[in-house]
Amino acid sequence: MKQKEVKIIVTIGPSSYNKSIINKMDLAGVDILRVNLSHTCIGDLEGIINQLREWTEKTICIDTEGAQIRTGTIRDSSVKVDAHEIVELVDAETVGDKSHIPLTLEEPWNILLPGSVLKIDFNRVILQVIKVEGRKVTGRIIRWLLNRKSLKQ
User: Fold this and answer.
1) Alpha helix locations (H) across 12-146?
2) What radius of gyration do the chain's Cα atoms show?
């Protein structure tokens, strides 16, 4: 009976992106290094891949989910939102609450446009930007999942 070949895939992120750890992974038998774009600036990606190629001959792949915008600090560590509620998207320096959602995105008002759709907390909340005025970004909750804490830190 022919046995299946097992491949070992590891995700490279901030805590594992260094030569010593990559060398240990090589010795442990890792087959594929997956670069986690959730913790990687897209502008840094080429340099990271080139550095990994210097450290190892293993196959390098990029995660398929892509870069993520994270929420910042939220008062009481979570808030619950309801469909159709209006919220303001603010910068990460602002502590969030039920009506203010901080994003770890520099100047969200310069990037988000009316119609932009954001999926928050792994799709538990879906929000659409309805207005951008100066530094104020307003969104409407399109959908939220019941029986789960939304907007967890």
Assistant:
1) 19-28, 45-55, 108-111
2) 20
Instruction: Count CA within 13 A, CB hemisphere, residue 24.
Output: 8
Q: Residue length, the chain?
A: 153
> Which structure tokens are listed for 34?
């997956």
Helix (H, G, I), strand (E, B) or coil at 77: helix
CATH 2.40.33.10 in the chain is located at 75-144
84-97: b (≥16 Cβ within 10 Å) or e: eeebebbbbeeebe
Q: Is the pTM of this model over 0.90?
A: no
Is residue 130 within 8 A of residue 138, CB to CB? The reply is yes
Q: 150 near 80, Cβ under 8 Å?
A: yes
SS3 71: strand
Average pLDDT, integer, range 65-80 = 75
Q: Where does 75-144 sit in CATH, by number? A: 2.40.33.10
